[in-house]
Write a structure and sequence with these properties.
- It is globular and about 40 Å long.
- A hairpin with a 2-residue loop joins strand 6 and strand 7.
- Helix 2 packs across helix 3.
- It has about 200 residues and is an alpha/beta fold.
- It has a seven-stranded mixed β-sheet with strand order 1-3-2-8-9-10-11, sandwiched between helices. Strands 4-5 form a two-stranded antiparallel ribbon. A two-stranded antiparallel sheet has the order 6-7.
């Protein structure tokens, strides 16, 4: 997968896994990583799927309707890529925290839905429930920050609440942060994510 790896100045810090939204690239969220933790290593990944020329992490059938088969395949692809990157760049595979926006947040949530040890934690900005009707792994003590919009036209309020509840029921420690900026990735929610991160990591 196309990606950027930046070695941090403190190897004990988590590796920030950056996952862009639809139409983004591995460059998009680099400034956000600097806002969260200037000392952490960064692994920023570009999605392997194209939708009308725009990179994504998995296919969808229509707005808000995921191609579940492709989602599962791409989730495994991403997990395998992180495993390999940990070997190639010599970082602690058990110390990876996702920072995802929109489509990137959805694939990060899918990692949590499918694998107990895929992530040490996650900052999910405007995510949706990746899959319904499945049993989640034990996510006890995995902290998850969800930034959601009360007026998000793409991700309804109930979607955010459902995701928070599903993750919480699986044992994750969920913080749900609300904004009024539609589906936009706002500076205020990044500041909130930074405070959450600094408190826990």
């Amino acid at each position: 997968m196309e990606h950027i790896f930046k070695q941090g100045t403190d190897r004990t810090k988590p590796v920030l896994l950056l996952l862009h939204g639809t139409g983004g690239t591995e460059q998009d969220l680099l400034p956000l990583a600097d806002m969260i933790d200037t000392q952490a290593s960064v692994l920023s990944v570009r999605g392997n799927v194209l939708e009308n020329g725009m990179p994504r992490f998995f296919r969808r059938l229509s707005e808000g309707v995921f191609d579940e088969e492709d989602l599962i395949f791409r989730t495994e692809e991403l997990r395998g890529f992180i495993d390999q990157a940990a070997t190639d760049y010599r970082f602690d595979r058990s110390n990876v925290i996702a920072l995802g926006y929109s489509n990137g947040a959805n694939i990060a949530a899918s990692l949590l839905f499918h694998h107990a040890n895929a992530l040490k934690g996650a900052m999910l900005h405007h995510p949706m429930v990746p899959r319904r009707g499945m049993k989640l792994p034990d996510l006890t003590n995995i902290p998850v920050f969800i930034a959601a919009g009360e007026n998000d036209p793409i991700c309804p309020i109930q979607e955010s609440r459902d995701l928070s509840e599903l993750l919480g029921d699986a044992g994750a420690e969920v913080t749900l942060h609300w904004e009024m900026n539609g589906h936009s990735l706002s500076r205020t929610e990044i500041v909130a994510a930074k405070k959450w991160y600094e408190r826990l990591f």
